[in-house]
Amino acid sequence: MNQLNNFVSFKVSALMGAVALSTSFAAQAQAWPSKQITFVVPFTAGSATDIMARVIGEKLGPRLGQTVLVENRVGAGGTIGTSAVAKSTPDGYTFVVVSTGHVVNPALYPKLSYDTLKDFDGITPLASLPNVIVVSPSKGYKDVDGQ
């Protein structure tokens, strides 16, 4: 548990620094943050992405002296919530917490209402989650090429 707290503290510190550097100069003229911060998670509550956003938000809020709201806007492989953030005011108060699906979605959904490269600036990776492919031994597959 102590390692998790250290990891979260490190990520919160990195996120705070990255956000401070990424806000526009006009926004920096004002005291940031001066209002609630929203993390939009385009996946269901309880998902790995949601849990990471909530853990980071829980630590980040008190450090910044503002509420960090985690809002789940689910559907269409994460594109509904991501689209909402792409259309939001770029004021440094609304963030989207994405997974690897963010880079895959342009191939799956050729008519996205946003451009994953042009409409977003990455701030910091929050976690790395390993993926595993599992198949019944009776299928005889030994690798992903089907050999």
3D structure, described in words:
Helices cover 40% and strands 9% of the residues. It has helices spanning 2-22, 25-29, 48-64, 79-86, 101-108; strands spanning 37-41, 68-72, 94-96. It has a three-stranded parallel sheet with strand order 2-1-3, with helices on both faces. Helix 3 links the parallel strand 1 (37-41) and strand 2 (68-72). The protein is globular and about 60 Å long.
Strand content is: 5-15%
Which structural category do the helix and sheet elements fall into?
A: mainly alpha
Largest beta sheet: what is the strand line-up? 2-1-3
- The residue ranges in which pLDDT falls below 50 over 5 or more consecutive positions are none
What share of residues is helical? 40-55%
End-to-end CA span? 41 Å
Mean pLDDT: 85
Give the C-level CATH assignment.
Alpha Beta
Quaternary state of the chains:
single chain
Main sheet: strands, sense, barrel: 3 strands, parallel
The CATH H-level superfamily is Bordetella uptake gene, domain 1
Radius of gyration: 18 Å
Q: Note the overall shape.
A: globular
Order of helices and strands: HHEHEHEH
CATH architecture: 3-Layer(aba) Sandwich
CATH topology: D-Maltodextrin-Binding Protein, domain 2
Quickly count the domains. 1
